[in-house]
Give the backbone structure.
Amino acid sequence: MKVLVIGGAGYIGSHVVKALLADHADVTVYDDLSSGHKINLFPAAHFVEGNILDYGQLEKTMRQGFEAVVHLAAKKAVGESMINPELYAENNLLGAVHILNAMAQNNVKALVFSSSAAVYGMPEYLPVDEKHPLNPISFYGFTKQETERLMDWYDRLKGIKYTALRYFNAAGYDASGAIKGRDRHPQNLLPIIKEVVDGKRQYLSVFGNDYETRDGTCIRDYVHVSDLADAHVSAIKRLLAGRPSGIFNLGTSQGVSVKEVIDATERIIGKPLPVRFEEHRLGDPAVLVAASDLAESELGWKPRYTLIDDIIRTEL
Ligand code: UD1
C-alpha cells in the first residue's frame, strides 16, 4: 500500500503515519512544517517539505504512483477562521482543490479527508449522526463542508473515491511516547490543561458553568488520536477494496463534561488544577456527542480508549 500523507507531521497526521507504518505501508509525508514538527517525522517514511498551495511541487510529488492520499493539511483553529477567513479560504479550500487536481492529473483514485464535527454546527438532536443537517457556525466548519462537497463532485466527474472522517474532539497522544511535537499555540481543552500542569500557564479558563448539563459545563465526545489514526488505515483499505465513497463520524459516543475532564486530571496528577470560571465562549454548543455506528459497521472501527482518564494520561 503506497500512501501519500499530506500534513503527516501534524498532530493527527503523525499518528496516522505511525499506524500506516505499523501496517507495513509505504508512506510519504508531504508537509510544510507550518504547524507540524520535524521531530514528528518517522525515519521509515519518506518526506517532502512542501505546501499544498504550491501546485507545481504537489503535482510533482503526486507522480510517484500512490494508491491513496490522506489529506490532513488544513488550518484548524475555529476562532482564527472567523478573524482571518482569507487564510482559511486559501489554505483549506484552494488547498483541497490543488490536492484533488493533482490526484486527477496522476490518476490517484482514493482520498481520505480529515473532516470535523464542526460541519454540523449547533446540534438539533443527540447523538449527532451523519444525517444531521449541516449548518456550520464557523468559517472553519464551512471549509470542511465545502471540501466534502468538492470531493463528491470529483468522485462523480473524475472517479476519485473519498472517505470524509468527521472527528469529534481529538485528544491524547501516542501512548508509546513516539510523537513528541506539540501544538505551538494550543486552543483545545486538553493541550491547554497540559500547559497548566507543566506550569506554562497559571490556570485553566473554563468557558461557562451554567449550561444545562449535569454539572453546568459543556459536554464533548473526546476520542483518542490513536483510535482516529486506526480509522484512517481502515478507510484506505476499504476504498482500495472498491467500496464507495462515504462519510463517517468518529467519536466514542460518550459525553464527558469539562468538569469531569478537570476531575480526571486532578486524580492523575494528585493535586488540584488551578481553574477560573469565565463567560461562555461564542459558538460553543452545550453538548456535542457522536453517533459512530456507521464507522463501526463500514470501517470495523471501535475506539480502544473509552475512559477519559486513559486519554488524559497519554496527553500529560
Ligand atoms: C472545536 C470544533 C471541532 C474542531 C476543534 C479543533 C466545533 C463545534 N468544534 O471543538 O470541530 O475540530 O475545535 O480546533 O466547532 N474549553 C474550556 N477552556 C479552554 C478550552 C476549551 O473551557 O481553555 C471548553 C470548551 O468550552 C468546550 C470544551 O472545553 O466545551 C472543548 O473545547 P475545544 O477543545 O476547544 O474543542 P471544541 O470547541 O469542542
The radius of gyration is 19 Å.
